[in-house]
Specification:
46% of the residues lie in helices and 18% in strands. Strands 3-2-1-4-5-7-6 form a seven-stranded mixed β-sheet, with helices on both faces. It binds S-adenosylmethionine.
């Protein structure tokens, strides 16, 4: 077995292979769900009072639905639990896991590439977009952000929850150490196939700095940009960036 994702083994297939164990793996990551809830709460707090007819919220890269659950809870706590929530993911296996859980009728899951899904939506037809651990995986990130800005209603928020360690040597060292000592061995114990988790290690090291990501969001037309990092060992590693469509 090779140690890296190879051409022909798409990322979607790699996520599908691990989908059955994904929830178990993230359950050993302290703070994973609480951090998603905190980012989702930022999205709910930024929802405009008047949604100008747009009543759809997107969870792009929804995976097995952990981020969708966080999103739904934050919308409910704001009294917006009746908005239609669409979880979109390119991995059939991850979507199957998400669909196997209990959801209200307002929650839907679609197996599609995030960019393809956005391109099919009308301009200004989406109230808010959540993207948790997605954007690092998207080849044309500027195009993705431009499409998100296009589909958002004016004032509609985008919240990105993502790893970024570029320009922070302490964060890079912590990330390498945790991946090599905990995440990759845990993935081997459950899946016997660690290619996705080697990709995780490398893709985070190679991804944008927070500042670069923020610049991309500004170029796409997002305003009122904010950034914060989480508490705990992921401080300086996991970040929430938020902005609203001008
Ligand atoms: C690390 S998982 C995160 C899942 C979920 N958001 C969470 O917070 O638990 C990233 C997900 O993004 C999906 N993904 C990666 N690239 C994608 C793309 N271009 N379009 C849609 N989904 C994508 C993967 O299939 C995977 O399920």
């Amino acid at each position: 077995m090779t140690s890296e994702l190879q051409p022909g083994h798409s990322l979607a297939d790699a996520f599908s292979r691990t989908a059955e164990h994904y929830d178990l793996l993230v359950s050993i990551s302290p703070g994973y769900h609480a951090q998603l809830r905190a980012s989702a709460a930022e999205l709910a707090a930024r929802l405009p009072q008047s949604l100008s007819g747009a009543s759809v919220v997107l969870d792009l890269g929804c995976g097995t639905g952990a981020s969708t659950r966080a999103l739904l809870e934050s919308l409910r706590s704001r009294g917006d639990g009746d908005l239609e929530v669409y979880g979109v993911d390119s991995s059939a296996g991850m979507i199957e896991q998400a669909r196997s859980k209990r959801w209200p009728e307002s929650v839907h899951f679609e197996c599609a590439d995030a960019l393809d899904n956005l391109r099919e939506r009308e301009s200004g037809s989406v109230s808010a977009v959540f993207a948790a651990y997605l954007v690092r995986n998207v080849a044309d990130l500027d195009e993705l952000l431009a499409e998100i800005a296009r589909v958002l209603v004016p004032g509609g928020p985008l919240v990105i929850h993502e790893y970024s360690v570029a320009g922070n040597r302490a964060a890079q060292l912590t990330w390498r150490t945790v991946c090599r000592a905990i995440i990759i061995p845990a993935a081997f114990a459950t899946d016997r196939d660690v290619r996705l988790y080697r990709y995780l290690l490398r893709s985070v090291l190679d991804f944008d700095s927070v500042e670069h990501l923020r610049e991309r969001m500004a170029r796409a037309g997002l305003r009122g940009l904010t950034h914060r990092t989480v508490r705990g060992w992921q401080r300086g590693i996991v970040h929430t960036l938020a902005g609203v469509r001008a």
